[in-house]
Design brief:
The protein has 184 residues and is α+β, with helices and mostly antiparallel strands. It has a single domain, classed as Alpha-Beta Plaits (2-Layer Sandwich). The chain has four helices and eleven strands. 38% of the residues are buried.
């Protein structure tokens, strides 16, 4: 992950997974920048990033394909605080509110936050569509195939194996970097 700052600073807290996607204005570079911004947030330690995947858009097909990845982080932020930090990164990168399933300059989604289940105004963790989306499960499985979906009690690998989503997801780079702590 050349240029992406895998943090080595000490942060204790929970493990979370963040979906990263873009299909506008050099999407791979946008995704790299978003991961870099995640890694420099004071309440977040970047543990790893999946490979980048080129993925068919969900919804309207008259738009460019996406680049998608997943970042694994350790954070001291609550789910609500992390969600707010993700939205702030999006705004800082120039994202405006777009139409649902339309083109995205950058899209950061809180996929999983440990084993927490949160259903609040404007926030749902795990992400409510995670188990239906190949473009999320493929990169997530690369990082954490063993992670258990807290609502279904099934591993990410199990969700991917059962998936009927026929959307095309193509590996477009294999430069994933995974920094594992010796002790979690």
């Amino acid at each position: 992950m050349e240029g992406e700052g895998l943090s080595t600073g000490e942060i204790r807290g929970g493990i979370a997974f963040v979906g990263v996607g873009s299909n506008m204005e050099n999407p791979a570079e946008r995704c790299r920048e978003a991961v870099e911004r995640l890694s420099t947030h004071p309440g977040i330690r970047l543990l790893g990033r999946s490979s980048f995947y080129r993925t068919e858009p969900v919804g309207p097909q008259d738009q460019p394909w996406f680049i998608n990845a997943v970042a694994e982080i350790r954070t001291v932020l609550s789910p609500r605080q992390l969600f707010a930090a993700l939205k702030e990164i999006e705004r800082g990168m120039g994202r405006k509110e777009e139409k649902k399933w339309g083109p995205r300059l950058i899209d950061l989604d809180l996929l999983l936050y440990g084993q927490e289940v949160v259903r609040e105004e404007g926030l749902a963790v795990p992400h409510p569509e995670l188990h239906r989306r190949r473009f999320v499960l493929e990169p997530l499985c690369e990082l954490a195939s063993y992670a258990i979906h807290p609502s279904f009690g099934v591993s990410v690998r199990g969700l991917l194996d059962r998936l009927t989503d026929a959307a095309r997801v193509e590996l477009c780079d294999s430069t994933a970097a995974i920094l594992r702590e010796r002790q979690r």
